[in-house]
Amino acid sequence: MKPSKISALLLAAAIAVITLVSLVGCGGKGSPADTNAPSGGAAGNEAAAPETGLAAEFTPEIKAELGLDGYEFVAYIRSEDWGAKDIYTEEQNGEALNDATYLRNQYLTDTYGFTVKAVESGSTYMPDFTNIVMAGESVYDVAFPMGREAGTFCQKGLLCDLGPLPYFDFNADCWNRMFNDTLAILGRRYYAAGDISTNLFSAVRAIMFNKSLVQKYQLDDPYATVKDGKWTLTVFDTMSHAVSADLNGDSTMDLNDQWGMVWQSTISGIVFYYGAGEVLTPIDDTGTPYLRFGTDRSIEVFDWIQSMMKSTEVYRLGTVEEGLNVFHGGRSLFYTEVMDKLTFLRDSETDLGVLPLPKWNEDQESYIQFMDSWCISPVVIPISASSPERSAFFAQALAEASREYVRPAYYDVCLTGKYIRDNESEEMLDIIFGNCVLDNCDLYQWASLWFSIVDAFATSDGAASIAAKFSSKVEGEMQKTIDAVQSQAQG
User: Fold this and answer.
1) Is a pLDDT exceeding 70 seen at residue 5?
2) Helix, strand or coil for residue 56?
3) Integer Rg of the chain from CA
4) Least confident of 218-232, 321-335, 431-445
5) Cβ burial 318-350 (10 Å sphere, 16+ → b, else e)
6) Please, are residues 335 and 208 in contact by the beta-carbon 8 Å criterion?
7) 434 CB contacts (<8 Å, ≥6 apart)?
8) 185: nearest Cα among 162, 213, 205
9) Residue 163 burial class via C-beta count within 10 angstroms: exposed 0-12, middle 13-18, buried 19 and up
């Protein structure tokens, strides 16, 4: 069974959410390849101050009105792996990202008069956030919670709608259009992401590949295949089968053998589902979410991916550590993970490259990447902030300055300078960061449908039966979210 060739018209309809409302410019306007990819430039010391946006319009009157002079903005961030670590640092230490963060904050102080502080939550969660906000305590000006927690905070009425606040410019290149539009239920925006933190880039899932295995098995050049628009699920599956091998000849495929692809079971086939242009719960033109899982195309895509993954001698699901170790040891052609995992492969002897997720077929207009709401840490403003308008100014100023200072340090030095090892992969990064998707169903976890589908890719459960089982539950919980948002709008 192969992905069907469908007309351009049908494909456009099938992925309308991606192209009309779920289309992500990971940081900008215009075409993904030129304005949404992180800009070039030297890291840290040679960064140029922003010449547009708030810096160009800033006046002493604004400074006095917002009380910026000497004000210390406090950002609440997650601890551990997915915290926004580029919000604050005490001093320079020679590391590009750290020093860029320091210099950006110095620029913000010199330009606007305020200083920046970050407080870690002590875990990847923010267990005290709800009590602090409900008590009306003005402890934090902004926060960077896990995406799924942000969805919970939103439904509890703890977050400001960012849209009406002054100073935000969500059409600016420093913001991610997906968070501006796709996640804006009923047009209300409670979260934002983009250049304000490199967490956005680290949270994108792509494919790493072993170039030595490509050469050994005389496979087509993956880079050329991508650029020719021919990097599809069928091509990916064919390559994966070509390299699978029982290295020790014991007739049992285990972690010591060679695989087509290894990755974590908690993601499973959903990564390919989004790459094929599907999404579980998009929003319509009114900003109202609806369930799309269960349509003919979604079933076709799901069934094909599920069938592909039944080749358990080719595809290995396991823990994060298992997948990383197998690929690190050169025993897998492909490895799909968040871009953050490149840091763990820095010392690997595997000659690796980076690719976008494969398309459904050649008719699909663009390559689409997936980020999950566990990894992403969007910025939010608690309703208890001492001045939401001042917090909005800070978030916009931080995002604008980060585009000039921090983004180049992450992209040009941490990725292309340390972890990416060839010019072709640099081209792939433009594609990877140029078009990403985050699903409302993942953010809000309606009826646990997202996890049920993830699990089903590795079982015999069919898409049609899953949709029939969950549709009423999802729609019921979805309506509760809609009602909560409407209530806040009316209140």
Assistant:
1) no
2) helix
3) 22
4) 431-445
5) bebebbbbbbbebbbbbbbbbbbbbebbeebeb
6) yes
7) 25, 26, 31, 32, 33, 36, 37, 366
8) 162
9) middle
- Give backbone dihedrals phi and psi of 79, rounded to 5 degrees, phi first: -95, -175
Coil/strand/helix, residue 431: helix
Compute φ and ψ for 404, nearest 5 degrees: -90, -30
- Which class for 76: exposed (0-12), middle (13-18), buried (19 or more C-beta within 10 A)? buried
Q: Which residues, at least 6 apart from 57, have a Cβ–Cβ distance to it below 8 Å? A: none
Q: Is the dihedral of CA 272, 276, 278, 279 positive or negative?
A: positive
Task: Decide: helix, strand or coil at residue 122.
Answer: coil
- State the number of CA atoms in the 13 A half-sphere of 358 facing the CB: 25
Question: Is 87:197 a contact under the CB 8 Å cutoff?
Answer: yes
CB contact burial 372-410 (16+ within 10 A = b; e otherwise):
bbbbbbbbbbbbbbeebbbbbbbbbbbbbbbbbbbbbbb
DSSP string, 247-313: TT-SS---TTSBEEEEEETTTTTHHHHHHTT--SS-B-TTS-B---TTSHHHHHHHHHHHHHHT-TT
Beta strands 72-77; 142-144: pairing state: parallel
> What are the tokens at 384?
């208890």
Identity of residue 277: G
What beta strand segments (E) does 121-252 contain?
A: 142-144, 204-210
Q: Please give the single-letter amino acid code of residue 169.
A: D
Cα–Cα distance measured from residue 184 to residue 327, given in angstroms and rounded to the nearest whole number? 38
Residues ≥6 apart with Cβ < 8 Å to 438: 24, 147, 178, 179, 182, 183, 370, 371, 372, 373, 376
Contact 339/206 with Cβ under 8 angstroms?
yes
Q: What are 407-429's pLDDT values in tens digits?
A: 988 877 767 767 777 778 778 88
Instruction: Give 45-98 pLDDT, tens digit per residue.
Output: 455 556 679 999 999 999 999 999 999 999 999 987 788 889 999 999 999 999
